[in-house]
Structures are given as C-alpha cells and as structure tokens.
C-alpha cells in the first residue's frame, strides 16, 4: 500500500483508463469484482454463471500505468446461475464463490490455473454472505433464510445453526471469535464462535435522519444493507512468504564461493549485470490510530455507520444525499472507503458515481460515469488502482490522490506516515545531489511551498484547546520562523513574504520573517500584521450587483496567493480578492461554480481555474484581470485536467495535463506535447519538470532520482535538433514563426559559439538584450582568434577553459579581470598570490577577506584581513569568531600606542579575561580603565596592585563600600559578600562572614550538618589566610615585611578570636553528630565518651542540647531525656549521670515545670538503679 492517509492528501479522484469486455451477452450484468492483494488476480462474475479470474499486466511502480493488458484471462466453469458473491482467502490463496441457486464453490490455484476444490449446494436458499476469518482458517456462510454454517479450510463443519431471522450479510470480527450478521430489516447483531447470541448493535444512523432522506423514504420500506465489512490488514499469503524465503536462501548461496578458478582469467561464475540489492522493507507498516473507525455498515438509501469497535457508543454517521448505494469497499490501509451508487431520484441507474470518504466520514472525492451501471468495486493492494464491474465490462481505474507536497528549488518535500502512532515524516529530497533530510512532526495537517521555503503545519492539543503550529522551513527542514493559529489548515498557500491558512469560514494571514542575506533586502520588506479573519464579517462590506452580502453561508473551497493579495474561491460561485496587509476583501469576481483549484501566473495578471463540470470533470478556464473585473480569455474544452503550472518567466504560457498527456497553452491555442507521468512542479525555459509522488510513497524513506522527469516541449526540441544539425538559418526561421525568449537565447548562444556574429546580434536584438549586443561588438573588435574564443567561453560560463586560453596567451590580467567581474575572489587570489605587484595582491586579499566575512567564516576572514593589513577588521573577525588566543597574540604584536588596544581590552573584559584586558589598557597607558576592569571582574588583589603602582584611590575603601552594598539580612546577600571577599583574597574577612552565617543559622535551629559545613568553610578560609602569610614570608628574601606580617596589632578582637578558635565550632557540631550516631546505633559507651568531650563546647552548643537526648525512645522518656545522663545511666556511670542531672536542674533555660519534671525523673532513676 502506498503510504498515504486522510492527513497526507487533501482530495481523491479517479479516472478509468482501461476497459475489458468480459464476453457477456448484451444487457447482461457483472455483479462483483474482487482484487487479490497478494497475487494481483481479479475475480469478476455475474449473469449466466459467468465467473472469470483475470490479471492486469502492470506494476504500480511503473511510471506508465496506461501500458496494461490482461496477462491472465481464465473462465471458471461450474456455476449455471447468476454468480452473486465472491471472496478471497488471502492467506491460503483460495477463491470462494456462490450463485443464486445456493451453490458454493471453493477454487484453488494449481499449476497457474484455477480449479475447483470443494463444492456445497444446499438448494434451499440464496447465499447472502461468505467470509473468511483474518488468518483464513475458518469460513462462515450465511443464507437468506437464517441458516449459518461455519467450517474449516479443509471443508469440515464446525457448527451450523438456524437463526430465527432473515439475513442479508455476515462478517467476522478481526479476532475471529465473533460473527456479525446483518438482517433483512437493517439490524446488526453479533454471535460468538459457538453460535450463541452475544450483542445487538445500536444503529444510530437509522434512529435519526434528515428531512430530505425522510421524504425520499417510501412507506414500509425496509432498510437494505448493501455492505457490512470490518477492516483488518491483509496478511501475506503463505505461498508468497515461502517464495520470499526461497529467494533469500538463493541470494545467500550466491554470496558463498564454492570453488576456486583454475585459470585466473576466467571467473567461477558470471558476474550479474547491474545488480541491485533487494529492498528489505518495500512497504513500511502504517499504524492505525485508535480513534479511526474500522467497522462499516452501508445501507442502500445512502446512509452509513462507521464504528471504532462493536461496542462504540459514538459512531460516525455518514449521509450521502440523493445516492442509492450499490457497493462499498475499504481501502487496503483502512483509511478510505470507496462507495458506488447512482442517483436516487432517477429511474435510469446508468448515471453512476463513485464517492471516496475517509474513515472518519469526510467526503474527499468522487468519480462520475454516465454510460454504465456500476455494480461492483474493489481496490488494488497499492490503493492507487481500482477495478469496477459495470454492465458486462471490467474497468480499471487510476485513483488519483491530491497529495500534500511541494518543491523548494531542486528539493521535493512530501509527507508520509511513520511507524509510530500519530508521527509523520516530512521528507526533503534534493534530487540534484541525491540527498535527503527527514523532519518528524506529530499530528501533521498540511504543507505548502514557494521557491526557497515551505510552510509545515501540525496540530497541537495543549490545555484542551486545539491550535495549529505553523513552521517556516528551508530546503533541509531547518525552522526559520513559526506562529500559532486556531484556523484549521484545510487550505494553505505561501509567497515570499507571508502565508495564508484557511478553512471553510475563516482565514489566517501570517507575515513571517525571513533571514536576509544583506541589509538592503532586509530594508525592502516591511512585514504586515498577522491575524485571523472570519469570512462572514469580511463579506459584509462587499457589494455584488445591486445586493449587499449580509453574512451568507457560503464557504471557501480553494485559495491562491499573489504578491500583495490573495484569492478565495467560494463553494457556491464567485472569487474574493483580499489584501495580504490587513485581510480586507476588496473585490468579488463572478466565476461560476464549482471551482476545484486555481493558480496565478508569474506576474499575477492572469488566473487559471479548474472547474468540476459534469461532462468534463476537470475543465480549465483562463481569466485576465482587467481593471476591477476578471474576464475570461480562454476555455480549454473537453480536457480532463489532472495538473497544471504557469511558466515561471512567461506570463502567457501554461502547461497542463490532460490525464497523462501534456499540453502547452499560450492563452490562444493549445499544443500537444509528450506524455508526463507525474505531478508538475516546474515550468520554465520551455522545460516541464515533474515528480511521480505515487512512486515516492511506495517507499517514502528511500527516494530515487528515477521519480523525476524533465520534458522538453516540442518547440525547444525542434530548435535544438536544427542547431545540432548546424541548420542555423532554419532555426532562426522557426523562432521567427514561433517566438519565445528561450528559443532566441539558444540561437544566440550557438551563434556566438560558432562566430556567427550577425545572427548572434539579431538574436540578442530579439531578446532585447543590450549587454549581448555589446558583447558581440566587443568580440568582433578582438584581433586575436584565441582571445576571442576565451571571451566566448567566458560568456558561456566556461571559466576554466577561458582562463586556460588567457594564460596560454600570456594575458593573466584578462583572466583576473574575468574572475573579478563574476565575483570569484578565490580564483583571483589563486592567480595573484605569487604576483610581485603588492597592491594587486592586497586588493585580492581584501576581496577574499570580505567574501569570508559576509559568509561568517571568521577565522578565514581574519587571516585575509591580516594579509591586507586591515587591523580593525581583523580584530572584529577574531572577536566574532571567539578566537581570543589569536587576539592575545595580536595585542602583544601591536605597538603600545596602538588605537586598537582599547577595543581589544574591552573585548577581553566582556569575556572575563582580566589579565589580557589589563595588559592592553596598561600598554595604552590607561591605568584607570585597568583598575575598573579588575574591580568589575572582582580581581581585587590585582586592582590593589595597580592602584598602589599608580598612586590611585584606595581600593580597600572601594571594596568595603561594594561589600556594604551587597551585605544584607538575607542569607543570599551574605553569601554574595562572602564570595566577593574570597575573590578579593580577603580570606579572614570572608571567614568572619562564614562564622556569622553559622551563628545566625544556629539561632534559627537549622540542621546540624548545615551548621557544621558553615564552620568548616570558615576554618578553611582561616587556613587560606595563614597559607598566604607563609607564601609572603617565603618570597620575602630580605625580611622587609617580616615584622609587619608577624605584628598582629592591626587585627581586631574579633579577627584575633577567629585565629585562636579556628576549628572549634566545626569540632563542636562534629562531636554532636557523632554522639547522636553512637546513641542511635546503640554504642552507648562511645556515646558517653563523646558527650563528655561535648561539655567543653558550651560556647557553641546549648548546654541543654548537650545533655538532652534528641529523639530518644528508651524507658518512658520521650523528648525530655538527657543525652549525657542517659548515656551514663545505660552504662552504669551513675556519678556522671548525677552531675549531668544536677547541671540541668540549674540551667536558666528551663522553667519551673521542667525543673520539677527533672527532679521527679532523677528520683525515679536513682531510686530504681542505685
């Protein structure tokens, strides 16, 4: 199955391209057609016992689908009455048929011929349904009188039952455990695999109906079930799997060499020509969304019910107005349903049609046939072909989905479903260089493209609201801009400045921002305001004839975009013109309905419209804008238009396809061209380029160049043939009769190359190319034939050949001039790099530097700016490229008084490179800037050194002032000040702040481990201070500062206390944690020893906390137990316990109640244990 579903296509149409007569007498009917998805056989049958199995000789990958014929056409003898039903057993490759007499035959394939295997004839009732379960092991046969037979593949009966209902159809549930029956009165009921009633399905489609269908329904009319089918994926047949296994084994054998050649000039086996590795997974798995309906019941009067499961309480109801359904079939991937029928109001059933709907009930396309009565339809395995049984003929139709795809220059962009649920791949395939990029999106909705970019839209369900995410992407899938909208993107179009997203009643205009290559381009485009607009509100200001539209219920059916406006076609006729700047509708053009699509030409002066006309389904009409009117200037009658594209340069030329036949229209006549088997995405220079999207979607992740077809139109082919035959005068006569710029350009190129300067001048005059005329004049005046040829090569853009001739003629200056004109600075550089002319070399280096600078190749730009001695731009390139190592080298190489020192110093400062910045400032003799750089980067020691050396302001005062600004009541500010002093090398001040933070947190009863960390940090900072003192003593060889360092008279009392009690706070909380650990792990003696040590740290710990147990649970003591007393009592040290209790009783922190409790506890403890 080709990879497409309801999200990756917008419409679906079909055309019949082959008709096969099945040999039935006149007025006899075929009643069915069934396509085998594994072996490609088609079974069809009908009146007079006719039953045939045919096979179409075509491959869906073949770009020429019309080249098809019957390679198998076998008549099966066995039925004498009208054959009504047929079904394939895909897994076992069996065909089962039945006729009006009740005869059932099972056919099998033997030696490429279908033969009768089993037969059953009840002779009591008509067979209304035959179905195999999914794996083909069980068959169910339903008769109109209510008899049901369930049997095995071998023909053994499992069970049969007489149901007390009249049956119309039967179907297996996918699991093979349930049978679903449709009754003659339109009801649907479910039985289990033993024949017991299980469930009655509520048919909501019959409980309610619209007015038209209620009036059309006859009195006492029964609801006739035409089709009832539960979709499930088709399994690969056993025969096909065995064949694949056999081929794989043979390929493995070919890879193994079984012998050695005796003669080296003869190989042991012939080498296969153009061996192509087989595709491992030619058809990727397409997941089925959980919310997609899979069970279908279709009624004759145009009503259908689609259900996700047999117990679905919210089914999808489809009502096809004025249609009598004669057949319905699921597509192979379960995403679409094809419905055949005819007009309900006419007695002649020969006006037939096929409607295509999605599994969610949305109509996506149709096909009309006016000559036959369609009685049976079926899909081919790819989903791109259909077989139609009509009268006594079998028609083969080409299903034509309108895929969501686009083209960005040489890149094809298309969407396909990935193997993950709701995941879609957006393929960007550059066919020129054969490179691909896959961009994955969720819930894909639509895409559109324009020249160098495309718009990709996917759905996002956030917070219960549905929004659509619009991305602007380049040709490798990189997102350039984005926006969000609530407008459902049924229609999308885009130009170079904005995009339009529309649904039936609203539209959204998005003015995106594109990265511009230079400031001139950026200044030209002033983006408008993006916004959403409601069609009904915008209609109110538009007059049509003498009436003013007051909010009609019309809806949008197609859009296209110009430069400053866009067009909207309406379902009931008419085209609106709206501004892109503000979304206001400015004009309404009278164009008859219904419109399928429309496109504007290259200068937005003409409009091509494809309409849906009954006799010619897709008729194309060309209009021209004349003032405020839209005038019809050409109508292509009796053309079934499949695709069309305006010329990219010529506003009068339009290429379109009549099915697969390409035609060129110049708005006055139509010329037939060669066949094109794909979608047109480019028409310029008389070449039509197309891509076979259908073939791409067979293997969407492995695109090949073979899908691209370039078709040169006949005029260009004729002129090219004449020029190749050296018939220049005849080519000129042909161009005079069929003038086109591309033809004259070919003649001019050829004439210049052949030195036919008069004819070349004539061609350039026809092209109105003044530069070309001047070229011919200049070449004529060149005396040297070699130099003349070099100029011609340069004109034809064969610069290497021209350069070789120039150099051979010792005219390197002309080669340099040529490359300078075309802007190839690297070629100029290669020519002049060994030139003794320094000025020329410097100029070439300058051009190369600017070229790399514009392309943001900063290192190369800096290198060439250095060669041309442009120091300013070299510094700028190094800064932009973050090449600060090279910038430091440059700073040391420049003279001290260089004006660029400040620029480099500022750059180093912004990157936090203090040493390099100070060096630059000091070389420029700017100590004040160096000082402020150090202060800005918190390098206070360096700042003090610079201030002392240059007799500047007191850095200590600046640091203190800065610290006061950052110091505050919160921990965050205190920590910031701590960091400031640490960076400034003021370790003792930093330690004081650390200890202050610890004391503050201790009062706030913070966790003990946090307090310990604060005290440890303060102690480490004190050790850093001592280490810095020792370093200064070590480098003080002459004992000049020794006395100063030893003198502590300058220290405050607080600093002295810190130096004396460096680790005591950390030790206190360390022992506290250790005591708790010992106590909780029942190491009582260790806990006692640790608690005795803790008594020396009452300065840092609350005495009550030393003696009080935290979280104990021994005896009857809860939160009031004592750490030391408890530990001493538990190890029998009652003397220590007594002293601890006495100490607690005199603590000021305890109130009277707590003291009394202590006394009672002491009495109880000592009276019990002492």
TrEMBL record:
WD repeats lie at residues 76-109. Keywords: Cell projection, Cilium, Coiled coil, Cytoplasm, Repeat, WD repeat. Residues 1060-1169 form the IFT121-like TPR repeats domain. It is found in: Cell projection, Cilium; Cytoplasm. Residues 271-282 have a biased composition (Basic and acidic residues). This is WD_REPEATS_REGION domain-containing protein. Residues 743-825 form the IFT80/172/WDR35 TPR domain. It holds the Pfam family Beta-prop_WDR35_TULP_N. Its main location: other. Gene3D superfamilies: 1.25.40.470, YVTN repeat-like/Quinoprotein amine dehydrogenase. GO terms for biological process: intraciliary retrograde transport; non-motile cilium assembly; protein localization to cilium. Residues 267-288 are annotated as: Disordered. InterPro entries: Beta-prop_IFT121_2nd, Beta-prop_IFT121_TULP_N, Ift122/121, TPR-like_helical_dom_sf, TPR_IFT121, TPR_IFT80_172_dom, TPR_WDR35, WD40/YVTN_repeat-like_dom_sf. It comes from Caenorhabditis tropicalis. Residues 405-708 form the IFT121 second beta-propeller domain. One of its GO terms (cellular component) is intraciliary transport particle A. Residues 201-256 form a coiled coil. Residues 19-235 form the IFT121/TULP4 N-terminal domain.
């Amino acid at each position: 199955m080709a990879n497409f579903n309801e999200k990756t296509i917008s419409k679906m149409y079909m055309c019949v391209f082959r008709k096969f007569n099945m040999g039935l007498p006149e007025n006899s009917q075929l009643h069915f057609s069934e396509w085998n998805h594994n072996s490609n056989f088609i079974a069809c049958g009908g009146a007079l016992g006719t039953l045939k199995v045919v096979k179409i000789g075509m491959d869906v990958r073949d770009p020429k689908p019309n080249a098809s014929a019957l390679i198998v056409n076998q008549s099966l003898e066995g039925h004498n009455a009208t054959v009504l039903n047929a079904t394939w057993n895909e897994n076992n490759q069996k065909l089962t048929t039945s006729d009006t007499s009740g005869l059932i035959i099972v056919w099998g394939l033997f030696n490429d011929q279908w033969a009768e295997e089993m037969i059953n004839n009840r002779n009591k009732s008509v067979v209304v349904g035959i179905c195999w379960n999914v794996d083909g092991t069980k068959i169910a046969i339903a008769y109109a009188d209510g008899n049901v037979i369930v049997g095995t593949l071998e023909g053994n009966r499992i069970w049969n039952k007489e149901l007390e209902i009249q049956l119309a159809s039967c179907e297996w549930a996918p699991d093979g455990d349930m049978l679903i029956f449709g009754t003659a009165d339109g009801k649907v009921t479910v039985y289990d695999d033993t024949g017991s009633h299980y469930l009655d399905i509520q048919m909501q489609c019959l409980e309610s109906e619209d007015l038209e269908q209620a009036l059309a329904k006859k009195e006492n009319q029964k609801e006739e079930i035409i089709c009832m089918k539960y979709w499930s994926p088709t399994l690969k047949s056993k025969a096909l799997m065995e064949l694949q296994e056999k081929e794989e084994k043979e390929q493995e054998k070919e890879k193994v060499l079984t012998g050695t050649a005796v003669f080296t000039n003869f190989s042991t086996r012939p080498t296969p020509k153009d061996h192509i590795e087989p595709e491992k997974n030619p058809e990727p798995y397409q997941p089925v969304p959980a919310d997609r309906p899979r069970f279908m019941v279709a009624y004759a009067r145009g009503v259908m019910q689609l259900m996700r499961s047999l117990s679905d309480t919210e089914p999808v109801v489809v009502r096809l107005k004025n249609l009598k359904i004669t057949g319905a079939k699921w597509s192979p991937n379960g995403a679409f349903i094809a419905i055949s029928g005819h007009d309900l109001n006419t007695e002649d059933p020969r006006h037939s049609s096929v409607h295509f709907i999605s599994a969610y009930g949305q109509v996506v396309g149709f096909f009309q046939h006016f000559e036959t009565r369609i009685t049976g339809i079926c899909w081919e395995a790819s989903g791109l072909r259909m077989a139609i049984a009509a009268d006594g003929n079998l028609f083969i139709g080409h299903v034509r989905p309108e895929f969501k795809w686009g083209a960005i220059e040489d890149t094809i962009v298309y969407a396909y479903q990935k193997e993950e649920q709701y995941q879609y791949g957006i393929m960007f395939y550059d066919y020129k260089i054969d490179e691909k990029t896959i961009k994955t999106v969720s819930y894909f909705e639509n895409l559109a493209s324009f020249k160098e970019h495309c718009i990709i839209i996917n759905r996002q369900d956030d917070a219960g609201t549905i929004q659509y995410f619009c991305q602007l992407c380049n040709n490798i899938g990189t997102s350039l801009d984005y926006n969000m909208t609530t407008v459902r993107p049924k229609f999308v179009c885009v130009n170079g400045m904005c995009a339009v997203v529309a649904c039936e009643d609203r539209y959204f205009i998005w003015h995106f921002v594109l990265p511009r290559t230079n400031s001139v381009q950026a200044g030209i485009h002033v983006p408008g305001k993006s916004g959403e607009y409601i069609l009904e509100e915008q209609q109110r200001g538009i007059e049509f004839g003498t009436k003013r539209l007051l909010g009609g219920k019309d809806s949008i059916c197609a859009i296209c975009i110009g430069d400053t406006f866009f067009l909207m076609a309406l379902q009931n006729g008419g085209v609106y013109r709206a501004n892109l700047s503000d979304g206001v509708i400015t004009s309404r053009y009278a164009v008859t309905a219904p419109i399928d699509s429309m496109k504007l030409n290259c200068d937005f002066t003409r409009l091509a419209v494809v309409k849906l006309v009954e006799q010619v389904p897709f008729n194309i009409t060309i209009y021209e804008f004349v003032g405020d009117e839209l005038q019809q200037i050409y109508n292509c009658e009796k053309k079934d238009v499949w695709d069309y594209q305006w010329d990219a340069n010529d506003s009068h030329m339009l290429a379109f396809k009549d099915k697969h036949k390409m035609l060129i229209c110049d708005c006055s006549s139509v010329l037939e061209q060669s066949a094109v088997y794909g979608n047109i995405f480019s028409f310029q220079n008389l070449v039509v380029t197309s891509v076979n999207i259908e073939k791409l979607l067979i293997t969407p992740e492995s695109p090949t160049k073979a899908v691209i077809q370039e078709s040169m139109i006949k005029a260009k082919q004729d002129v090219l043939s004449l020029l190749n035959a050296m018939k220049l005068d005849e080519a000129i006569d042909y161009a005079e009769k069929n003038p086109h710029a591309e033809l004259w350009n070919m003649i001019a190129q050829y004439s210049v190359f052949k030195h036919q300067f008069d004819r070349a001048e004539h061609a350039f005059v026809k092209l109105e190319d003044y530069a070309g005329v001047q070229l011919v004049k200049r070449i004529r005046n060149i005396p040297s034939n070699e130099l003349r040829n070099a100029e011609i090569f340069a004109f034809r853009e064969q610069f290497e050949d021209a350069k070789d001739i120039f150099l051979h003629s010792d005219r390197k200056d002309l080669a340099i001039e040529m490359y300078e004109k075309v802007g190839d600075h690297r070629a100029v550089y290669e020519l002049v790099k060994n030139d003794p002319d320094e000025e020329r070399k410097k100029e070439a280096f300058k051009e190369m530097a600017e070229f790399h600078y514009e392309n943001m190749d900063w290192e190369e730009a800096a290198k060439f700016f250095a060669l041309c001695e442009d120091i300013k731009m070299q510094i700028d390139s190094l800064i932009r490229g973050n090449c600060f190592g090279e910038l430091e080298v440059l700073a040391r190489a420049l003279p001290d008084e260089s004006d660029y020192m400040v620029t480099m110093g500022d750059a180093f400062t912004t990157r936090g490179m203090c040493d390099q910045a100070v060096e630059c400032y000091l070389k420029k003799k700017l100590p004040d800037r160096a000082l402020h750089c150090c202060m800005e980067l918190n390098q206070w020691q360096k700042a003090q050194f610079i201030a002392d050396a240059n007799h500047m302001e007191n850095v200590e005062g600046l640091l203190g002032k800065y610290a006061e600004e950052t110091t505050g009541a919160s921990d965050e500010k205190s920590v910031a000040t701590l960091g400031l002093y640490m960076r400034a090398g003021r370790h003792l001040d930093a330690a004081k702040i650390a200890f202050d933070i610890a004391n503050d947190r201790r009062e706030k009863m913070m966790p003990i481990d946090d307090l310990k960390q604060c005290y440890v940090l303060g102690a480490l900072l004190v050790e850093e201070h001592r280490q810095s003192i020792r370093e200064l003593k070590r480098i003080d060889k002459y004992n000049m500062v020794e006395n100063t360092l030893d003198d502590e008279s300058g220290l405050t009392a607080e600093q002295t206390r810190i130096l004396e009690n460096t680790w005591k706070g950390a030790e206190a909380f360390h022992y506290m944690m250790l005591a708790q650990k010992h106590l909780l792990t029942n190491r009582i003696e260790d806990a006692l020893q640790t608690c005795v040590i803790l008594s020396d740290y009452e300065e840092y710990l609350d005495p009550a906390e030393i003696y009080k147990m935290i979280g104990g649970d021994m005896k009857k003591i809860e939160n009031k137990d004592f750490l030391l007393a408890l530990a001493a009592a538990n190890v029998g040290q009652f003397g220590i316990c007594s002293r601890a209790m006495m100490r607690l009783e005199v603590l000021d922190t305890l109130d009277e109640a707590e003291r009394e409790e202590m006394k009672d506890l002491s009495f109880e403890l000592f009276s019990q244990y002492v």
